[in-house]
Amino acid sequence: MAEPLQPLSLGQLLDRTVRFYGRNAGLFIGIAIPSVLMALAAQVAPMLITVPPLLRPAPGMPLAFHPAAAWYLLGYVVILVVVAAYVSGATTWAVSHLELGETVSIRRCYGEIRGHAGSVVLTSLLAMLCAFGPVAAALLLAVVSPPGSLLLGTFASLLLFAGVIALVWIAMRLVVAIPAVVLERQGAVAAIRRSAALTKGSLGRVFLLLLAAMCAFFAVTMTLGIAGGIGLVVAHSLRVYEFSQLLAGAISGVLLTPLMSILFALLYFDLKVRKEGFDLEVLLRQRPAAADADA
């Protein structure tokens, strides 16, 4: 094992995440690239396809309210969730075996995840529905409220505020659900319950870790976005600017998605050590035996 698993302070956990990423950057970026390219293709495709007349919005209709746009947005969100689930699952598996000093390859990571990809993706979808459900309900109420309705507008605003708070709280409770699927072979519902149990009593630390991760994400994204803006000034082309922004998003995804997955995997180890005297080597040795027993 590269370093013994022991309870870590917040600073030690962040430092270990950065050092772990730095020592294995090629592996983790390689894990993220195929999935992020899929998401990028889903973004670029509508820009290159000519929309048939029957699918074009009627004059005066906002594009966001067109059925085709709604279905595309739903499909794109599902693709993002699936992509993030695969990257997170493969990265978690890589972290667990690198911690034991083993040699890990990109093909092996995705090969190991393939056997329970359904549980990984379903866990991510359920977590997304739990976290964003209240916010989506508030936004839907705001859209369907009659113009000028003060009562419904106020209620929608309060519901939106409560939904954002619920989103943060649920995200903190479910942050280690994917590691529970990958390392404990839990089903989707069981993994969500497992994550909620592990994070109980540690929400303060989890919140600060999520805050640090989001700050890193926005810092990198804004830096790359500024570079895209410079491209617009130089090229004087809106299309060049749009593609540069998409490229900036893809680069930030390749760089940051593995970093967050490493952070959440190490957080999972830390919570297990604190609550259960966790031994990673014992857990990984027990998994094949459990799989054989199930068979």
Quick overview of this protein structure:
With 295 residues, the chain is mostly helical. The protein is built from 11 helices and no strands. It is 81% helix and 0% strand.
Mean pLDDT over the residues: 76
Low-pLDDT regions: 52-65, 288-295
Q: What is the number of E strands?
A: 0
Helix content: over 70%
Main beta sheet: none
Total discrete domains: 1
| Amino-to-carboxy terminus distance | 30 Å
Percentage of β-strand residues: under 5%
What sequence of helices (H) and strands (E) makes up the elements?
Answer: HHHHHHHHHHH
- Tally of separate helices: 11
Q: What structural category arises from helix and sheet content? A: mainly alpha
What is Rg? 21 Å
What's the shape?
Answer: globular
Structure description:
The structure is a single chain. This protein has one domain (10-49, 62-283). Helix content is 81%, strand content 0%. The protein contains eleven helices and no strands. α3 packs across α7 (177-184) and α5 (117-144) crosses α8. Mean pLDDT is 76; it is low at 52-65 and 288-295.
List strands and helices in order, with pairings.
Layout: H1 10-23, H2 25-48, H3 67-98, H4 106-114, H5 117-144, H6 150-173, H7 177-184, H8 188-199, H9 203-235, H10 238-276, H11 280-294
